Amino acid sequence: MTNFIQRCVGAKPSACYRACCPNRSVVGRGVPSAPRASESARNARVRSTSPGALGTARPTFTRAYDLGNTPYRARSFVLKCLWRGGGGLHAPGGSGSVVTALWLAMALGLALPARAADTLNWETNRNRVSADIKSGQLLPMLEQIASVTGWHIFLEPDTTATVSAKFDRLPPGEALHLLLHDLNFALVPATNASSKLFVFRTTMQNATQSVHPAKPVASGPKGKLIANELILRLKPGAKIDDIAKLLGAKVTGRIDSLNAYRLQFEDQAAADAARQQLAGNPDVSSVDSNYSIDRPPTPAGVQGSNLPPPPQLQLKTPPDTGRIIVGLVDTAVQPLGNGLDSFLLKQVSVAGDAQLDPNSPSHGTSMAETILGSLSAITKGNSAVQILPVDVYGPNASTSTFDVANGITTAYNSGAKIINLSLGSDGDSSFLHDVITQVSAKNVLLIGAAGNTPVTTPFYPAAYPEVMAVTAVDQGQLASYANRGSFISLGAPGNNVVYYQGQPWYVQGTSASAAFTTGIASGYMDTTHNSTDQTQTFLRSKLGVKITSP
Asked: pLDDT per residue over 118-133, tens digit each?
């Protein structure tokens, strides 16, 4: 990085691009020279849908270095070089330049922290590795590396070792030196094939045991059918209590404004029998299944220096008309501190009283601060936008498509103009889709997280066409953990640092990407007073992506 900066200082933008580090092999014990990470065949590419779309920083340039540990002066120079280099960036002034600057600050300038103990975080898009391993075994670690990088790894038979290492954001060569310790290794990159890593005690030729990649563990929540439940919508005038009594069911949820009800039966057989019985009932508009949605993960603690500060934002007096309220359908939100609590309206719960850990931020809390962070940037620190937290989890480990629909309805009835949905599963609910369709028709903008599995299959509710689905983009490329389906229309940074009780916490995932986008959208509507359609057009022009096959 030092050589790169020295070669770029005072140079024209074209010289900056020529200064990118070449692709070199790594041989020996941690030679501090890192190859550019090979792209896994399963990874999709991100292509801009417009000349001014973000996420289009030139890949060759942005993948050649990392700004996380770069001094501020050098970091400023590189950002200036990016600005001068074009790539569809707007001239200073207006919302477009603010979004661009904020995108670069989050996607390029954030020093990612080391993770908790016994973790290995291999950032293939950034060519950086972090680890905190107390006592791991060699073979499982190599299997994990093979899975993440796509490398073909060969190990000398009968080679074992205990892995113990802790470091933050090193190039792969230096990381391998610390991980493999006294073992020898050779990393040989290939142009049109996967790179090969040989790990051996004696000679490279003896590394003949092929290491099979670890099977990927799906990190996205599954839409598990709640087998003993049904969702009923009744025609006007019909009485749910009479129908429930006839069916032998218990009413466990109500959305009276929609004539929608959640029924619980003794078992799946009773629910199936009730569905058949309801098919011919003239008082019933629809019958649908209910799906569970797991609670999103909470942020991880951060240890690091040069972390970004909390959002600096002042609340303007909301106008009598045209007020922008963001409905945050998520877990419960805790007090934010740092002068941000005035941006939170009184919380509403559709799932009971939450029982949150007072020592760490909830997912909803981190999403609220992420929204306010991008809102602060696009409004220059002054905004009348406020967030309405709608808790759809309560004290439960999961929510359901019925409760999410209830949360969306509650947010709309409370005046929300934008609804953030940083949650979801693969459960496709026609009832939830109907609710989203109705709310969208009322000129409400819905923004959803695309999911973190990563797969190309739909992730709901983001995959519904009325929702703007946001995936995570890392330095102009699709993040390795992010979903990549054709339903995705926007890409935004998936990394953020939030603060709770004065301590920093690290957030990663498409949840943060959606929240970032919601902050941009709400700030744009607040400052321009433009319509929902105009806001969607603005978002597509700045954050629009199209997922293509490799």
From this structure: 578 776 655 788 888 8
